[in-house]
């Protein structure tokens, strides 16, 4: 008598990314000897090897026991404000905070993500307070589609979605302690455009610039860069030494349409403009460790009392005072998401062909390139390279583009 199969609805889901690549066998000698002894029986055996898109998925069966124990009409709607391990803190529509877990079958269906639920997600959850002596606990049953998100690539090569459903990204960069990193700002700008977020650049700790070198902050030297320009940019192919200053980076970003603020939590400079930029928006605040993100939030909303720490004067590296992203309500209207500081920001899911459109100053020139698939590296008749040579596009920004283009090429091969 045939065994009765398990009833339920079959659903195809992806394996985790680290299970999609077949591991190369290192037992070639043993296999050769085994095959040599059985060569006459080859026609009696058949090897089946996973191949194609179907091998990257598996089937799960959703039975009634896997589904929610209550009717969907009883689900409550809320916003995820923090995630700590398996616990998601969710604020409902009355402003009450619930401690929720994620239903196992939902985690399986969303297995492609590093985390199926992130800060800013709009979720539907079941009320389990009766089973927990009246404490507000629940189970997340559904995650609504994200309108926007900020995503980066983690060290394992997976997508790390940091925040969902914000409408703007405040990129905080300090002019000193630690020094400004223009290329990191460019990376955040690309990620903002990729995730449909409006970027704002905040040049923080502006009060330290004059104290450091006793000169005008705009003239503060960040670094010098020696480049050997390509033939089309320099007919004589001579090395050029570029001086990168705070004022130069600020002016070039403003000239291509970005909103740039100069702030100081110590002197109060620029805080009124910052409040106006945050009012009635959901803003992700991001930047490297030690640039003063938490200090700025404390200055705008003193009652939050976020933890801050000093930057090492020897290494000019900050300490990680914020360890988890948190959605915080502002009394002036709107919310901010305080994110942990990072020292590197790798782009995710950006292919070489679309990178050009994420550099806003390139867009007016792209249509004038001779070839429709021009990558603006060494192609003849490239209008973008001509604009760089004519000074209409910043050479620093163009070199930043080339660096990101080189890094996104291996990613595009992994997506194919």
Helical fraction equals 10-25%
Low-confidence stretches: 16-21, 39-45, 211-215, 235-239, 315-320
Mean pLDDT: 78
Structural class per helix/strand content?
A: alpha/beta
**Number of alpha- plus pi-helical segments:** 11
Calculate the terminal CA-CA distance, rounded to whole Å: 46 Å
Strand order of the largest sheet: 14-11-10-15-17-16
Radius of gyration: 26 Å
Write the element-wise H/E pattern from the N-terminal end onward: EHEEEEHEEEEEHEHEEHEHEHEEHHHH
Number of DSSP strands?
Answer: 17
Beta strand %: 15-25%
Task: Please characterize this protein's 3D structure.
The protein has helices at 28-37, 104-109, 182-194, 207-213, 246-255, 271-278, 293-300, 352-355, 363-366, 383-389, 395-415; strands spanning 9-14, 57-62, 76-84, 87-92, 97-102, 122-127, 137-143, 149-153, 159-164, 168-174, 198-204, 221-228, 239-245, 259-262, 282-286, 326-329, 335-338. The protein is of the alpha/beta class. Strands 14-11-10-15-17-16 form a 6-stranded mixed beta sheet, sandwiched between helices. The protein has a 5-stranded mixed β-barrel with strand order 3-4-5-7-6. Strand 8 (149-153) and strand 9 (159-164) form a beta hairpin. The radius of gyration is 26 Å and the shape is globular. The chain starts with 8 loop residues before the first strand and ends with a helix. Mean pLDDT is 78; it is low at 16-21, 39-45, 211-215, 235-239 and 315-320.
